[in-house]
Amino acid sequence: MKIVGQMVVGAGEADRWLDLSLKEFARLCDDAVIVTCNATDKEKKLIKSYGFWTYEDNREWGRYQPDIKTDLLRKILGLQPRYILVLDGDETVPTLDREILELLATQRTSIYLYVVNLWNDEGHYAKALSFWNVRGYNPNASSDTQFLRKPVHCGNAPPYYYNQSAKESYVPHILLHRGLMLPHDRARKVERYRVYDPHAIHKGKQYYDSLSSLGDGSVYSEEEVQEKLKSEIAKL
Question: Most buried residue among 51, 102, 121, 217 by CB atoms closer than 10 A?
């Protein structure tokens, strides 16, 4: 089974957690296609050190995100993958291994992982900001390659893959997101959304406000969170 990674990388990510995310592709995928968007030579060099396919698309991210991702998927299809794993350059999937991923890929058109937003440090998370999201999908299940036409929050796959039922797509596995962990990163995110979604059209205002207002976060235990996921899925 051929599994290919999908990622968009911007400037500054090589100085944060990009290496951790690339290691996940190396561990779980046969290959990856990574588009750099206004990235620096540091990001490009790190990606090439892993031997993954990469190219540049320097259109403005906050305006052309769905087009950048649509073009990325079309390039990935040239590798004829059986399944696609989607990660950002600040994410890891600690409860997945190759055997589990292959099994899920044979059973499900798309898989929703539970996104845990780490908060202030790796021992805490923002429970109110953690949610299910598509992070794996079978690109052969639909001819649709167009991502949702929203400048921000356009998804990680075309809409078809978001329209699978929870019972058929939710899996009890965790995606750790570090992009909101540090206060200065949260401040940058708030500013980005202020520019590209000033009226909170593409995401609720409550979400944006939470980026600035949440306190210390909840204690994070991978085992406890995964048990809760299993319990929740059993009720579907």
Answer: 217
